[in-house]
User: Which sequence fits this backbone?
């Protein structure tokens, strides 16, 4: 009897548990349906408002202008969706499935302006949009939010005319007032956006002339004015304006992300780093002429290289960036190659790795404030051996911030060769000598030449490079202590300038502006000149180059600036990596473009054919 009674109680418990699960699922479905119905109701209301605006436009006699705009678009005024349209024409094109990616480190924040790393920018690229975008084939500017634009004869004013059908993912219309708000929000000193403020500092004001026309005014000509104005990601005023009264909440936030792009966070306010992943859903209100193909885009945080490769082998992520040491082995893996595309190339916009020498700590100059010491450190850094033994030849030497294929680079500016004897001579000239015969150099203050080199702890190639350099520097009498560090801690160290030396990398572009990294005005906390480098002549050249609209004259200025950077070595410029990527073969329409691999291009132009879709 007792056994039967206990069995009965157990069955009742199981039934109650199953009932609770079912109720919870039904409740979740009801919540989702309620949210969808509310969104649809808001969409209907705003559509009615748009129709009223159109009616007023017709009555006011402006219909002809609107009609001309429509005809221009229909007859080939360039927009950014050409490649995405061509993808739609592929016979196996299908919508659906998830694009699964991975980050090699956790994200501290994905809030725009507050975030400072490439991983956060990758997420934001799908959520936020700018007025214009580059064509991946021709590199020409195409309209995105902007329908068209005009540049004044003196180059100081750019006027954009916006599309009328753009809305944010919550259904609110995007207008010129949001563009003006975005600029004003960034330039407000209470907002923790020193990097973006520095970037946009050439713009004097942004003015919404009406709901669909916005004007950017520059105090003086700027060589990159169209990219500067048109490339600014537009933030919704109705969402972010509340933080002007509460800037601390914004500045310390982790997941405040809302935009007009093809994807969105399910909740634009609740993402936190402890989730271990970032998940975007298709924006059901996306305004673009081509719907985004994937239902979701998901990034998992997988910090260990081997675990990331295993996850790719198991087809749980769709992209794996291989390290040079494993690349050839993976090419010989028949099972892996049977279901993977592979790409090996030097991206035209490849960034560069470097070691930054911190010249000031706690307001006091460090030993690296002496350019002879920085030059000596570069002379004793055998970059060619690093490329051969660590990168296995899948890299090229970086001379400066400028790509060797860019007209900003002067071929006369050569990389500094490995030369221990010259390094020792420069250090001796700077007052360093082995005063007690222990094999370690002492400076003019009598202290040993010792320093820590901070690096990201989960990158095996960087770890091998740092250990190699430790032994190499010791041959010159310099003690380097490796300091492996978590990514979030590294970012905080940069913000507070709390490091001796640090090795990192910058992304790059077609023509880059080095103001943020090397101009002396950017040495403030949170600025990108985090090594406190100052050179008045370089400042003058940067300022002059940024104001020069004649390309030939500007390139001469950039090349002179490059000469100073090669002489001063605020960084030891290391190398530019080849891309060594494996992509799951179910991802269709993958190709290399003038901007690099199109896997993460927006508008999205890759997809998964119906026959091989596996995620719902």
Assistant:
């Amino acid at each position: 009897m007792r056994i039967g009674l206990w069995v009965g109680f157990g069955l009742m418990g199981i039934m109650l548990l199953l009932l609770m699960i079912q109720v919870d699922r039904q409740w979740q479905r009801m919540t989702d349906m309620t949210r969808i119905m509310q969104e649809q109701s808001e969409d209907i209301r705003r559509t009615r408002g748009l129709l009223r605006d159109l009616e007023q436009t017709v009555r006011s006699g402006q219909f002809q202008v609107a009609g001309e705009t429509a005809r221009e678009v229909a007859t080939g005024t360039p927009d950014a969706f050409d490649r995405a349209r061509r993808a739609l024409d592929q016979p196996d094109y299908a919508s659906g499935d998830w694009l699964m990616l991975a980050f090699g480190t956790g994200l501290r924040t994905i809030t725009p302006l507050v975030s400072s790393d490439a991983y956060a920018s990758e997420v934001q690229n799908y959520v936020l949009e700018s007025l214009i975008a580059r064509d991946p084939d021709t590199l020409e500017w195409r309209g995105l939010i902007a329908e068209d634009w005009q540049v004044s004869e003196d180059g100081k004013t750019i006027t954009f005319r916006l599309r009328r059908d753009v809305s944010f993912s919550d259904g609110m219309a995007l207008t010129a007032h949001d563009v003006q708000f975005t600029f004003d929000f960034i330039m407000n000193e209470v907002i923790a956006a020193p990097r973006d403020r520095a970037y946009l500092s050439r713009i004097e004001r942004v003015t919404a002339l009406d709901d669909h026309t916005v004007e950017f005014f520059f105090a003086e000509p700027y060589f990159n004015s169209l990219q500067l104005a048109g490339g600014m990601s537009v933030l919704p005023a109705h969402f972010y304006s509340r933080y002007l009264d509460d800037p601390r909440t914004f500045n310390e936030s982790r997941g405040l992300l809302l935009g007009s792009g093809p994807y969105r966070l399910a909740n634009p306010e609740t993402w936190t780093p402890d989730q271990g992943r970032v998940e975007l859903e298709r924006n059901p209100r996306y305004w673009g002429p081509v719907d985004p193909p994937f239902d979701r885009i998901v990034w998992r945080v997988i910090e260990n290289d081997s675990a990331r490769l295993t996850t790719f082998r198991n087809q749980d992520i769709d992209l794996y960036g291989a390290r040079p040491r494993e690349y050839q082995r993976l090419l010989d893996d028949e099972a892996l190659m049977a279901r993977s595309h592979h790409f090996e190339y030097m991206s035209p916009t490849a960034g560069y790795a470097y070691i930054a020498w911190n010249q000031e700590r706690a307001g006091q100059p460090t030993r690296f404030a002496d350019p002879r010491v920085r030059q000596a450190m570069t002379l004793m850094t055998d970059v060619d051996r690093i490329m051969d033994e660590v990168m296995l030849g899948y890299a090229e030497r970086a001379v400066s911030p400028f790509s060797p294929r860019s007209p900003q680079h002067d071929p006369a500016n050569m990389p500094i060769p490995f030369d221990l004897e010259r390094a020792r001579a420069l250090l001796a000239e700077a007052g360093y000598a082995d005063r007690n015969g222990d094999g370690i150099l002492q400076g003019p203050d009598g202290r040993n030449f010792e320093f820590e080199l901070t690096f990201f702890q989960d990158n095996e190639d960087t770890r091998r490079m740092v250990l190699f350099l430790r032994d190499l520097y010791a041959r010159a009498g310099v003690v380097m202590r490796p300091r492996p560090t978590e990514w979030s801690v590294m970012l905080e160290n940069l913000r507070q300038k709390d490091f001796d030396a640090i090795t990192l990398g910058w992304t790059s572009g077609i023509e880059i502006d080095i103001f943020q990294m090397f101009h002396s005005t950017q040495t403030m906390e949170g600025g990108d000149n985090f090594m406190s480098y100052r050179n008045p002549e370089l400042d003058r050249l940067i300022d002059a180059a940024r104001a020069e609209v004649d390309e030939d004259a500007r390139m001469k200025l950039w090349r002179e600036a490059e000469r100073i950077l090669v002489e001063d070595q605020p960084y030891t410029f290391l190398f530019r990596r080849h891309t060594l990527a494996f992509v799951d073969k179910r991802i269709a329409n993958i190709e290399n473009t003038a901007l690099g691999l199109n896997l993460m291009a927006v508008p999205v132009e890759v997809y998964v054919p119906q026959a091989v879709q596996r995620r719902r």
Observations:
- Residues 2-59 form the longest helix (58 residues).
- The two ends are 48 Å apart (CA to CA).
- The domain at 116-251 is CATH 3.90.76.10 (Dipeptide-binding Protein; domain 1).
- The longest strand covers residues 203-210.
